[in-house]
Amino acid sequence: MLDTGTAIGRADLAAVELPHSVRTGAAAFPERYGRDFWADLRTDPARTADYDAQMAADVTSWAEAVLPVYDWAGLGRLVDVGGGDGTMLAALLRAHPGLRGTVFDQPVTARAARATLAAAGVADRGDAVSGDFFGGLPSGAGGYLLCAVLHDWDDEAAVAILRSCARAAGSTGKVLVVEKFGAGGEAVSTGMDLRMLVYFGGRERGITDLTALAARAGLEVSGVHPAGRLAVVELVAR
After folding, report:
1. Mean pLDDT of 217-231
2. Nearest residue to 158 via CA among 213, 212, 227, 206
3. pTM (2 decimals)?
């Protein structure tokens, strides 16, 4: 992560533009590089692969924490929205032989997810679909997972992502948000909050913040399942 040639190291250099973010509330990354983080990432396949690998390393520990705290098997089918290289879905499918799932992400990342699922021996129950989560998602699944996704986005974009999930989930599906909410669900990390602002114009949120965003998307909190500093927040149609 200290290597400035990697995705995260490159993003950290954008902190030299921090005054812009403090003054405007907008990301500093475009001020340094002339385009947003995601557009910049798409210009370099090697950096994309590095970013996916870094996120997979993080998600491996997250999966260990959240696996025991929620009834994933009861969902029947799960769409991992912005699911990266499939590390989280592969862990869930290995733990629950009756579960089926789909990773939904950008084309290059979806290809990596297919390889991860195949290597984990769960390709018969897991697949990957490419697309834009601000548009349509595969509908009719029992659950739509947003793991470390919403903090990458400002409030308006986060609501749009939640609405997209709500439409796909319908009246019976669940939207599951996994983030680091901190002790009591409200003790967010100030350091990570600043990083999300610099990189993306995003922010860390407590469960109270998420509840307000969910309401704007036609969802309400039906359960909070703590997993250390993480939590699985279950949202359903209001």
Report:
1. 95
2. 213
3. 0.93
Cβ atoms < 10 Å from Cβ of 119: 11
Distance CA 6, CA 80 (A): 25
Write the single-letter amino acid at 16.
V
Residues 6+ positions from 157 with CB-CB distance below 8 Å: 134
Within a 10 A sphere around the Cβ of 1, how many other Cβ atoms?
Answer: 11
| Burial label, 167 (beta-carbon count in 10 A; 0-12, 13-18, 19+) | middle
Segment holding 176, helix H or strand E = strand 174-180
Question: Residue 77, by phi and psi: left (phi above 0), alpha (psi -120 to 50) or beta?
Answer: beta
Output DSSP code: residue 151.
Answer: G
Q: Catalytic residues, which ones? A: 151
pLDDT 10s digits, 115-148: 999 999 999 999 999 999 998 899 999 999 999 9
Name the DSSP letter for residue 173: -
